Amino acid sequence: TVSELLSQHITPNSEVEIKGWVRTFRANRFIALNDGSTLNNIQCVVDFENFDEALLKRITTGAAIHIKGDLVESQGKGQSVEIQANFVDVLGDSDPETYPIQPKKHSFEFLRENAHLRTRTNTFSAVMRLRSALSFAIHKYFNENGFYYMHAPIITGSDAEGAGEMFRVTSLDSKKPPLNEAGEVDYSKDFFGKETNLTVSGQLEAETYAMSLGKVYTFGPTFRAENSNTSRHLAEFWMIEPEVAFMDLPGNMDLAEDFMKSVIKYVLENNKEDLEFLDKRLQDEDKKKPQAERSPMTLIEKLKFVTDNNFKRVSYTEAIDILRNSKPNKKKKFKYIIDEWGADLQSEHERYLVEKHFNCPVILFDYPANIKAFYMRLNDDGKTVRAMDILFPGIGEIVGGAQREERLDVLKEKMAAINIPEEELWWYLDLRKFGTAVHSGFGLGFERLVMFATGMSNIRDVIPFPRTPQNAEF
Ligand code: 4AD
Ligand code: MG
């Protein structure tokens, strides 16, 4: 690979061979070749006297080529070694007139429309290598800490969050679905014999495994039909959900903090080249902004800040007091004023707490019961639940979790209050009948972590093929 050729000390003049895609071909002599193994290109020097002109014409940006030659010390600036080519073959031509990825700056909007080719740019290849590394770091962390990886189902019969934001799954022939006498679709005659949907979270199933295997985590795709067209929401996103038996809310916070620090540390140590590239990109963008809007920290400084500092733990009630007494901007007001205890925080409040007031990652806990999901453990005050959200600078909510309601009677009451039929979750209630115990877990939105680690500001740019309202092109 190019990465090996550039990083290893290879004996001078040794024979090497490489396949990749042409980034540029300069002066009919210098090919910059990239194979995805690193941000850097290897320079391949072709002496045009030795090659057929027709062949050289086919060496265009985007073409796939095969080169053999000698790896030699480079005379030019910018690279330590280069290949002096003695064999060149074009494996796949690329018409320079129609190839969308030209050797120039493209807007992210344009590249989104060319999502199938955008990883041939430095920015997107760096982002996706980091995405891969983060994913590996997550598995590594759990593996080293005694967790089992559990695969939660994608098609489910329940609504894990009780929020009704689900995509329906059906095998129905849309031209003639089975109907009942009233002319409505009869799901009892459909493939599964009941209504099913794409999962919004693997948590409920993960709880069943925590209550037998002890420490488990899921890492899979989840789906939400929330029609929010923002830079932080996807209809299909990946979620990591650890779940641990006999662990309470403070234990859950400790786990989440240690886990987040560990995976960020991993990329700081193992993905320096890509991080430095993205950091420089952001600094260049920043220089174009007025002084007051510039970021006080570089990307790498932000990542190090997270690994080196404690997350601030604050109860919802304390946070509300802080927000009520704050003057967030020149107008001294939030757009959405929180005047009552019990209101849900909007992203402007979350960002104020993280970016202005505390200036560090924040864990908010003990939220009002009525703004959180039914499965959260009710506190003795009867009005708050043992929920926790982790807020990150520039991102807002990155993790949501809780200690789970382990008492059968309380859980049944909470389900009844929001009309979740017991028949739908009989298996979930069984956990509270047979050997119930305190247990907790959380969900990390993987793309929000990738956004934080790469400094990308739109969630559509950190997942290969984003799914958002009105958009499933690829
Ligand atoms: O806060 P949420 O909805 O929590 C759950 O789903 C729990 N069942 C997790 C658990 O306790 N096991 O989602 C968890 C995280 C959020 O904090 C956010 O980072 C991410 O998932 N998330 C989304 N990411 C991208 N697009 C969306 N539409 C998202 N919705 C949630
Ligand atoms: Mg949440």
- Can you tell me the residue ranges where pLDDT is under 50 for at least 5 consecutive residues? none
**How can the largest sheet be summarized?**
8 strands, mixed
Give the ligands present.
Answer: 4-amino-1,4-dioxobutan-2-aminium adenosine-5'-monophosphate, magnesium ion
Radius of gyration: 27 Å
Describe the structure concisely.
The chain has helices at residues 2-7, 53-57, 108-113, 122-144, 203-213, 249-270, 272-287, 299-308, 316-324, 347-357, 408-417, 426-433, 446-454; strands spanning 14-26, 30-34, 42-45, 64-73, 81-92, 148-149, 155-156, 168-169, 196-198, 215-223, 236-245, 312-315, 362-368, 384-392, 396-403, 439-445.
Q: Which key features would you list for this structure?
A:
474 residues; alpha+beta; OB fold (Dihydrolipoamide Acetyltransferase, E2P); BirA Bifunctional Protein, domain 2; 2 domains; eight-stranded mixed beta sheet; five-stranded mixed β-barrel; 13 helices; 16 strands; 31% helix; globular; binds 4-amino-1,4-dioxobutan-2-aminium adenosine-5'-monophosphate; binds magnesium ion; Aa-tRNA-synt_II; asparagine-tRNA ligase activity; cytoplasm
